[in-house]
Amino acid sequence: MLVVKLRADGTERIRYEAELIGREGVLTVVRTRWAGGRWVTPFVTVEPGDPALEYYRPGARAVYLRLMDRQGRLRGWYVDLTDGVEETGEGFRYRDAVLDLFVYPNGRLLVLDGDEFVDYVLGLPEGRGAWGTPGVGAVRGAVEGLQEALRRLQDGLPPFTELPGG
Q1: Of 5, 59, 88, 116, whose CB has the highest number of CB atoms within 10 Å?
Q2: Cα separations (Å) of 141 from 62, 77, 83, 100, 135?
Q3: What is the pTM of this model?
Q4: Inter-residue contact 153 to 103 (CB < 8 Å)
Q5: For the segment 104-146, what is each residue's pLDDT rounded down to a tens digit?
Q6: How many other CB atoms sit within 10 Å of the CB of residue 106?
Q7: CA–CA dist 78, 101 (Å, integer)
Q8: What are the C-alpha distances in Å from 13 to residues 6, 16, 53, 105?
Q9: What is the distance between the alpha carbons of residues 119 and 20, in angstroms, rounded to a whole number?
Q10: How far apart are the C-alpha atoms of 75 and 52, rounded to whole Å?
Q11: Containing H/E element for 162?
Q12: Under-50 pLDDT residues of the chain
């Protein structure tokens, strides 16, 4: 199946192949390999080809990426907040809502790209169209996705069932 991620402005950021694994609760689970370049951050380093499981639900405001090392050990979850996941005939497609989360294996939460999100919102044009798509989609997606992810995290729902107390 094909996964397509769009930037907040609607242009394509990346597309890659994934293998359908099954369902975990209401989420569809796919297996893939990290399709981006080497990603080094203070919280995780991901190399091209590293394994990942991704969790999707049509209409959801969050996509969950279970990041692992080459031996399959959990590095953490990258939560991509979106303006809604769309199931296509080929796979899944979603538009980035700019704001993201990282959840450590111990459950500690880190909000990512807050400055970028504020800049995006402040940079929207004024007037009637200012809060039209994609602007309002990114803002609504970030808020609703954050609420959904925090609820799943707090309740130990998939994909966070491995956490202590999950």
Answers
A1: 5
A2: 8, 18, 4, 11, 10
A3: 0.85
A4: yes
A5: 998 888 888 777 777 776 676 654 444 455 566 667 778 888 8
A6: 8
A7: 6
A8: 5, 11, 19, 27
A9: 36
A10: 10
A11: none
A12: 127-131
Place of tokens 């005939």: 89
Distance CA 135, CA 83 (A): 10
Whose structure tokens read 């990426």?
65
The values of phi and psi at residue 94, to 5°, are -155, 155
Distance CA 151, CA 153 (A): 5
State the amino acid at position 57 in one-letter form: R
Which residue is it, tokens 């796919």?
A: 30
- Residue for token pair 């609703």: 144
Residues comprising the chain, all counted: 166
Q: Which helix (H) or strand (E) holds 118?
A: helix 114-122
Closest C-alpha to 96, from 141, 153, 30, 144: 141
Q: Are 43 and 76 in contact (CB under 8 A)?
A: yes
Check residue 125 and give its pLDDT: 60
